[in-house]
Amino acid sequence: MAGGGSASNSSSTTGVRIVVAGDHGTGKSSLILATAADSLPTNVPSVLPPTRLPVDMFPDRVPVTIIDTSSSLENKDKLDDELKSADAVVLTYACDKTSALARLTTFWLPELIRLKVKVPVIVAGCKSDLADFKQVIGLERVMPIMKQFREIDIDTCIECSASKRLRISEVFNYAQKAALYPIAPLFDLDARTLKPRCMRALKRIFIICDHDKDGALSDAELNGLQVKCFNAPLQPSEIVGIKRVVQEKLPACVNENGLTLAGFLSLHAIFFENGSPETTWTILRKHGYNNDIRLSENHLLPPVIRTNHQSVQLTSEAVEFLRGVFTLFDSDGDGALNADELDDLFSTAPESPWREAPYVNAAEKNEIGGLSLDGFLSEWALMSVLDPVLCVENLIYIGYAGDPSSALRVMRKRCVDHTEQNTEQNVFQCFVFGPKEAGKSSFLHSFVGRPFSEVYMPTTKEQYTVNIVDQPVVSMFIYNIMLHSLISLMNMCLISYRDISRTCQSGHLLMNRLLRVVFYF
């Protein structure tokens, strides 16, 4: 890929806010003034007001505001607030003071950790014209610090001189670039590999761009990605060059069909090694990803508007899509998805949504832990009830191409169903509660085919189980029944009677004359 980045992240809408911090006398204000003005005044104020740099100073043409700070104790709270609200931090030290680097390790970097500052940090050695040239300069001086403080995203170390106007604009160029295109979320500098969430997002983009589904990006498909992301086509020689660079590193990653997934991921790792994170970020953002490497809100389902007496469930369109996905990823054709097949299915999502409560172990599995089609659809039904937005988000990650709103349906109010003695709903939530050791958990476990255990294990958190049952009264419907076990009524510190009453009113305790739900006490 080629082309400059399009700074379309959250920072670019209002500009980049760069906070300059460091000990008194390290040259913070002089650095800012020398960057913003043609000449450095004789008398430099101790702390400058916010300084706006012109957009034409930077390749991305994104406004930059520089915040000068004081290191005095009386201004400590203000300094903390500024650091917490920064898009990037420039941490200064004086090159002419032998103790300067020690202050970084004993105070400033621990302070950033204490404040939980997660933005990129540029370490700037000021007054380089006054330094002893026998000293080791540049990154070699700071490398041990970068290794010691891995919690801090130290992006770059640079030495500069305000009085000699040496590399002063580069300091803020690096800071702006690090804010717009941070390396840490995407690339592990120690392992020299893409981070898992980045690889998952790029795999999804690869699949989207692989129109003929042959497992490789052809020259035309590569060019289509380039035009979408950078508004300019690749020249034939550039495509040849891209594939040659990848092939030199991993020969098997380019075949007769084009660039394979492994080659596509390797190409992005090369971008980072060559100092071009903006290329990967631009591709991610053009496909809707935010700085957390998740799809941004405008690519997802808007908030679901419903009353307490309405539920949400998957549409038939979404269910048919999921049936197709199940068949596609059931690679051994045994009618169940094992752990590896499920991991593969969710390999284009930021992470598998079913690894943690309430979804883990919520559905029935076979004797070797495989999830049947009924269990698979039941898990999705559970997610649609508990978190409709997350449900649709994960549908999109695994390939749902329809309008997000077409995946879910808000059902009519239950009072209408009760009046008409009829319902179109096929997912019912049933709450199970009772005193300690009444057997609530055993009841839920039996609902998904788990054997009874003679050993009592107290429940400390809510549990969900979900399964599909055939209702003989209305045989044309297959119903998802979701059992929700509330913590014991005796444990009043965890859940009150009023909480239970309110929860039950919003759930489906009983569907008269249509579906009989038996409570277990």
Automatic annotation (TrEMBL):
It is found in: Mitochondrion outer membrane. One of its GO terms (molecular function) is calcium ion binding. Keywords: Calcium, GTP-binding, Hydrolase, Membrane, Metal-binding, Mitochondrion, Mitochondrion outer membrane, Nucleotide-binding, Repeat, Transmembrane, Transmembrane helix. One of its GO terms (cellular component) is mitochondrial outer membrane. The keyword Calcium applies. SUPFAM superfamilies: EF-hand, P-loop containing nucleoside triphosphate hydrolases. Residues 13-181 form the Miro domain. InterPro entries: EF-hand-dom_pair, EF_Hand_1_Ca_BS, EF_hand_assoc_1, EF_hand_assoc_2, EF_hand_dom, Miro-EF-hand_domain, MIRO_dom, P-loop_NTPase. The keyword Methyltransferase does not apply. This is Putative small GTPase superfamily. It comes from Helianthus annuus (Common sunflower).
